[in-house]
């Protein structure tokens, strides 16, 4: 192997390692203690429980721009109540490459009686 081939391989290794460091992303977060959903009355009466997995697109200012349910609790009322409540929460913005940025974050909300 000649010196030029070794330099090219070394450059590729350095580029690959550097790009993974630069692409570091920290998702947005919210305070689960202060941001809670109200148990839907019909779900209380029917003793419905479950966990809903959701994703939220959070702006650099901490506002929810988009949301979706990834996995249902099995009960539409519980899913909708969780999605609505968390959408209205203020998030701590996420980070990309060391700067505040718009990011997707996942939230699991558990309904238990």
User: In percent, how much strand structure appears in the residues?
Assistant: 25-35%
Task: Give the CATH H-level superfamily.
Answer: TonB
Strand order of the largest sheet: 1-4-5
Text of the CATH class: Alpha Beta
Question: How would you explain this protein's 3D organization?
Answer:
This protein has 113 residues and is an alpha+beta fold. It has one domain (25-111): 2-Layer Sandwich (TolA/TonB C-terminal domain). It has three helices and six strands. The chain has helices spanning 3-22, 41-45, 76-87; strands spanning 25-26, 50-58, 64-71, 94-96, 99-101, 103-111. The protein has a three-stranded antiparallel β-sheet with strand order 1-4-5, with no helix packed on it. The chain has a three-stranded antiparallel β-sheet with strand order 3-2-6, with helices on one face. A hairpin with a 2-residue loop joins strand 4 (94-96) and strand 5 (99-101). The chain is elongated and about 45 Å long. Residues 2-22 have low confidence and may be disordered.
């Amino acid at each position: 192997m000649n010196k030029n081939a070794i330099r090219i391989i070394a450059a590729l290794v350095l580029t690959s390692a550097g790009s993974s460091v630069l692409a570091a992303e920290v998702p947005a977060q919210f305070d689960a203690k202060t941001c809670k959903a109200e148990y839907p009355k019909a779900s209380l009466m029917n003793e419905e429980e479950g966990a809903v997995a959701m994703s939220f697109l959070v702006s650099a200012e901490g506002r929810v721009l988009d949301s979706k349910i990834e996995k249902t609790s099995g009960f539409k009322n519980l899913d909708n109540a969780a999605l609505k409540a968390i959408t209205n929460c203020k998030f701590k913005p996420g980070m990309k490459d060391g700067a505040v940025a718009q990011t997707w974050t996942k939230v699991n909300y558990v309904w238990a009686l």
